[in-house]
Design brief:
Length: about 270
């Protein structure tokens, strides 16, 4: 059985991540692995006692799956990614604080590194998200970058699990006919994929006035979305960074969970080294 791996550090953000992980893992019938990355001289006994106490408190929510934990020592991003790889995880979930504490808390340097290095999709969950709302609407932005379609499979998996509707968002970042045709063709490709997967979807095309992130976030707010699926290299030709500037902006500013997927070619290149 594959696993859903969750970064855990006793913060409220990571506690919310556990709650969402239980919901997802129940639907996927995947076991859950909590990962606490401790400091070198940190006493393990109280850590284990508190995690076990918390796990016992949510045991009644588990539907035929296991909730386990492991303590690791090292750099948080390295250890989370190593555990996700060791567990053949389907998903890595990281919780964050709200907007005011985002950059200086868990979603700081370590979380960006986690997203960049992770061999599996990463779901970023903010503590100020309305968890009482059912996951009903998933935004899948499609631009002209080569890898933009690769997020479709994981988005479809979420949509099927939650009986959600995908909002397929074609984003025109240029008035050039060739670029717009690329977007049109990519959207049609994803539509065919969703049709075959029997996923409910709505297609919308928008002109990008500022950047793809702000356009996507505005639309997500307009439709009251519950999840946004992006690539770590959204419009990758505009930046040389793996964790592109638009992806970083999306993670910093989105008030709903963000699912990040690394391009397959980047994963393949990483595996060679």
């Amino acid at each position: 059985m594959n696993k859903v791996v969750v970064g855990f550090d006793f913060s409220s953000g990571s506690a919310y991540a556990v709650d969402l992980a239980i919901d997802i893992a129940n639907r996927w019938q995947s076991d859950i692995r909590l990962v606490y990355v401790k400091e070198k001289d940190e006493d393990e006994a109280p850590i284990r006692a508190e995690i076990e106490r918390r796990n016992a408190g949510v045991a009644h929510l588990l539907k035929g799956i296991k909730l386990e934990y492991v303590l690791r020592e090292g750099k948080p991003a390295d250890e989370l990614c190593a555990q996700a790889l060791a567990d053949n995880a389907e998903l890595l979930i990281v919780g964050t604080h709200g907007m005011s504490g985002m950059k200086k808390s868990l979603l700081g340097r370590n979380s960006y590194k986690t997203i960049e290095q992770s061999p599996v999709p990463v779901l970023i969950v903010r503590e100020d998200f309305n968890f009482s709302k059912q996951l009903e609407k998933i935004i899948v932005p499609i631009d002209s970058s080569d890898d933009t379609r690769q997020k479709a499979a994981k988005a479809a998996m979420f949509a099927k699990s939650f009986d959600a509707t995908i909002h397929l968002l074609g984003l025109y970042t240029s008035t050039t006919a060739d670029i717009r045709n690329i977007v049109n063709n990519y959207v049609k490709f994803v539509e065919r994929y969703f049709d075959k997967a029997e996923v409910k979807y709505i297609t919308k095309y928008l002109e990008v006035e500022k950047n793809v992130t702000l356009t996507t976030l505005d639309y997500a707010k307009e439709v009251n979305a519950d999840l946004i699926a992006i690539m770590t290299e959204q419009e990758s030709r505009l930046t040389s960074l793996l964790m592109g500037s638009y992806a970083q902006q999306m993670i910093n500013e989105s008030t709903v969970p963000v699912l990040t997927v690394r391009p397959a070619n980047v994963l393949a290149d990483t595996a060679k080294h």
